[in-house]
Specification:
The complex is a heterodimer of chains A (339) and B (122). Chain A has two domains: 208 residues, FAD/NAD(P)-binding domain, CATH 3.50.50.60; 121 residues, FAD/NAD(P)-binding domain, CATH 3.50.50.60. Chain A contains seven helices and 24 strands. In chain A, the strands form seven sheets. Chain A has a five-stranded parallel β-sheet, with helices on one face. Chain A has a five-stranded parallel β-sheet with strand order 12-19-13-14-15. A four-stranded mixed β-sheet of chain A has the order 1-9-8-7, with no helix packed on it. Chain B is an alpha+beta fold. Chain B has one domain: Ubiquitin-like (UB roll). Chain B is built from four helices and five strands. A five-stranded mixed β-sheet of chain B has the order 2-1-5-3-4. The radius of gyration of chain B is 15 Å and the shape is globular. Chain B starts with 6 loop residues before the first helix and ends in a 6-residue tail after the last strand. The chains are: A alpha/beta (339), B alpha+beta (122). Chains A and B meet through strand 20 of A and loops of B.
């Protein structure tokens, strides 16, 4: 059991700055995120897109913003739990007991949800029957590529993941690559490689096709793919791999007894606390009259939620407001020299 | 209050709004007036029309405001910019007439536009 003053769910910009604010006022915190990297939407959706409305930063990309925030919290050695999704939040006395899908548990008086639009999950095949084969022969990520050796693998998608795996698996497996149009959006070198392998018969390329149905009993047997002219082809296959990127899902947050409206959590504007004492929501996931879904709003919300956490984490102490320019205590925490 | 009598107000009213029809996957028809300059996505969100999630808020970064544009309208809409087709790869059941509704900006020319919303966004 990890004991901490505050647990932050979400390692996007708001979660990172909230951590900074907590550590600055002398509280411990840990961060959980379902992605395998720090940065949230900034990294997953627009790492290279410029942002123009971060105060005092005329222009930066999602990736640069994330790196700067990581640098800003470097002095604090904050513990991250990546590739973990918080599944359960339960009250126990004055604390919340938080469990992740990997079985990590936390005991904390404060939970700060900085979850954006929810956790990132792979987009799935639209064909409903795929659920029956999911995690067995219908996969959305690859953990162990050796299972495909000597098998037929049908890969769907047109981005880097789909193309990289098509190239890699074509060495030891029979690979079909199916994509809804002729253009691929992966790196040009990989696209060229795929076309080369297709020419040599190492990859069977089906463009302008999408999955229309899937067949099999206990084992996956074949997949039907259909093009815009409704022509159907049947592909015998052992595995179907879908690489359609990630989608944000509110997921288990919906079950924690919070007031949720249109995928956002209602909070007050003093502490950014939800209807549950000690659970706060900041950033894109919170809602209140006048809410703006901007990164700068998330920073403000996190700073106030952090102060609210102090009361529950240190019930016998009084919080004293200090400036980073003048406080010796804060400078010690940051590891910088005082004048 | 002057709009009935004052031609200037009437003129503004006519030119700045367009009628947009959203057909949901259960064939419910929602026709609303949306201000010129807004996007078809914003028109749906502001009028509580179900089925448009718009998770990224209009940044062409998520494909959860996917719509099908009725054939007679498809060619009248400004063509896709770079990146929209890439995002549509990830949409739920994309078709030839798929668009991201956050990329369709409403103007006089689109008055009467009809779009259909897929059964799911993800």
């Amino acid at each position: 059991m990890n004991k901490t003053d505050a647990l932050i769910i979400g390692a996007g910009p708001t979660g990172l700055f909230t951590a900074h604010q907590l550590k600055l006022i002398g509280l411990n915190c840990e961060i959980v995120d379902n992605l395998d990297k720090i940065g949230g939407q900034c990294i997953e959706l627009y790492p290279d897109k410029p942002i123009y409305d971060i105060p005092a930063v005329p222009e930066c990309t999602g990736g640069e913003l994330t790196n700067n925030l990581i640098n800003q919290i470097k002095p604090f050695n904050i513990k991250f739990h990546l590739s973990e999704r918080v599944d359960e939040v339960k009250k126990e006395g004055d604390n919340w007991i938080v469990k992740t899908n990997n079985g990590t548990t936390f005991q904390t008086p404060n939970v700060i949800i900085a979850g954006g639009v929810g956790s990132f999950e792979p987009r799935k095949f639209p064909v409903k029957e795929c659920e029956k084969f999911e995690n067995k022969s219908v996969l959305y990520s690859i953990k162990d590529k050796s299972i495909f050796k000597g098998k037929t693998v049908t890969i769907f998608g047109g981005g880097d993941s789909a193309l990289d795996w098509a190239v890699e698996l074509s060495k030891n497996s029979k690979v079909n690559l199916v994509h809804r149009r002729d253009d691929f959006r992966g790196a040009q070198a990989t696209v060229d490689k795929v076309h080369e392998l297709a020419k040599d018969g190492k990859i069977n390329l089906y463009t302008k096709y999408q999955m229309s149905s899937i067949k099999g009993g206990d084992q996956l047997e074949s997949i039907d793919i259909k093009n815009d002219d409704k022509e159907i082809k049947t592909l015998k296959t052992d595995y179907a791999l879908g690489f359609f990127g990630l989608i944000m899902q509110l997921g288990p947050i919906a079950n924690w007894g919070l007031n949720i409206d249109k995928k956002t959590i209602e909070v007050d504007t003093e502490k950014f606390e939800t209807n549950q004492k000690g659970i706060y929501a900041v950033g894109d996931i919170c809602s209140y009259p006048g809410k703006l879904k901007l990164i700068l709003s998330g920073f403000h919300e996190g700073a106030l939620a952090a102060r609210a956490c102090f009361k529950l984490a240190r019930p016998n102490e009084k919080y004293r407001f200090e400036f980073t320019t003048s406080s010796k205590t804060i400078k010690d925490r940051l590891g910088v020299k005082s004048d | 209050m002057f709009s009935h009598t004052c031609p200037i107000f009437l003129y503004n009213y006519i030119t700045i709004m367009a009628k947009i029809t959203y057909v949901t996957s259960d064939n419910q028809i929602h026709t609303v007036e949306v201000q010129n300059g807004l996007t078809v996505m914003e028109g749906a969100v502001q009028n509580d029309i179900p089925g448009i999630d718009a998770d990224c808020g209009g940044g062409m970064a998520c494909a959860t405001c996917h719509v099908y544009v009725n054939d007679d309208w498809f060619d009248k809409i400004k063509p896709k910019e770079d990146g929209e087709e890439d995002m549509l790869d990830m949409a739920f059941e994309p078709k030839k007439n798929s668009r991201l509704s956050c990329q369709i900006i409403i103007s006089d020319e689109l008055d009467g536009l009809t779009v259909s919303i897929p059964s799911k966004q993800s």
